[in-house]
Amino acid sequence: MILWPIVERELRIAARRPFVQWMRFFAALVALALLLLFKATSPPNASALPVLVAMSILAFAISILAGMVLTADALSSEKRGGTLGLLFLTDLNGHDVARSKLAAAGINAFCALLAVLPIMSFPVMMGGVTGGEYFRVAGALLVTHCFSLTTGLLVSAFGTETRTVTLYTFLLTLFVTGFLPALYENVKEFANVSVPHVLLWLSPASCLWLAFDQNYSTGPFKQEYWWSVVSILGVSATFVALSGYYLPRALRKKPQISRRRWFERVRPLLDGDPILWLG
Questions:
Q1: Cα(55)–Cα(124) distance, rounded to whole angstroms?
Q2: pTM reported for the whole predicted model
Q3: What confidence tens digit (pLDDT) does each residue in 135-189 have?
């Protein structure tokens, strides 16, 4: 497949970045520090659920930031450098370029998560955490990674400037992750109407919340975890498809001429007529 050489090229570029290596190191170091702190300050028979919650919040923050750090500027940097058009001179199409960028960035992000997940399994052996709860939390973190990376990829396909795409990636991630569950709770509480659970399913934060046993096994949201996983993966696949669809069309858009450039074009016509120049 022609997709894999592009992925290999992106991985070679990412392997030279010290940030990727240090991100894995510090993620595992902070998770290990949380585990040791809990072991040193808690009674011998205490439940290890709080340390799993703390480490899952840490891993969730890493997952949410992955899109803004790794994919928000993945396609827009190719546009600024003028190398995006060179990729389309080959047999690649927009979907191949989008998937290759996502695969290259996703492997780096997955390595950072993979450094934290083994340490998160210690609370299962310490007691108070079931194996199913751990695997559901790990699954929620994986789908959060997918959502964050594909959100950055979608915004990067439409944008050009680094600050702009990073800001819009942050706002879109914040809207889906935080605003939709808040809207669900407020409408349900104050308007006293039936609200569709899809607002909770689309949020990665709700998916992580539903992964714990106290929310997964009992209560009004029983078994809602799997609907949330399927919904987030569906939204992520839609974002990748939209990125690949729009990317070739972004090259065909004519650049807008600024006022200064327009003035420089008409200036030779005005130099010969002072009355027209004054007008």
A1: 13
A2: 0.79
A3: 999 999 999 999 999 998 899 888 888 888 888 889 999 999 988 888 877 777 7
pLDDT tens, residue by residue, 3-13:
566 667 766 77
pLDDT band at 257 (very low <50, low <70, confident <90, very high): very low
